[in-house]
Amino acid sequence: MIEFNSVSKSYQIAGNTVPVLRDISFTIEDGEFVSIMGPSGSGKSTLMHIMGCLDVPTSGRVSLFGTDIAGMSRDELAHARNRQIGFVFQNFHLIGRMTALRNVELPLVYAGWRRGRRSERARSLLTQVGLEHRMDHYPNELSGGQKQRVAIARALANQPSLILADEPTGALDTATGQEIMELFGRLNSQGVTIVVVTHDAAVASYASRTIYVRDGKVVDTL
To answer: How many domains does the chain have?
Structure first.
């Protein structure tokens, strides 16, 4: 599903070249639950951005769903983000003026679903993540764990084959974080490929495999 071959990424900052990723190679197979673990500044979030078609490498090759992302147009990258990949972030990124139901419907609006059909899909997903009684609540009326469940339901809206989660438990207490990771485990058992970026060994332990990153390099895979 995901293949990195000798991938490097650098940014130009104030006229200087700043390397972030250095000659990284790994493969993530369809249906895996993988964590990418490393300290702050190790390059793990940049890896996720490239996996999610939010950025492209400076050198090397990234294959996603069998296609080299370097050859994809902006529209094709946007289509992959909307239809094939679901994103979950540490700070939820919910829209405050929308109810939980409307937040989950949003990707379906962009995908052109009719109102009745997208409402039915969003209700089903919120029920799946245990929020059938919170559909009409706004984000400021939800706990952190409930917000993250809304974010996960939204990520699943277009039935993606890949979920990318960047520090998904970082804003949650330990018990709630465990609930969220158990939810990812259940989704993975249903066939969804899960990639979680984290600095927390307890979070990484839920994955079947961990890729360790330090100073922009893969230092181990267990």
So the answer is: 1
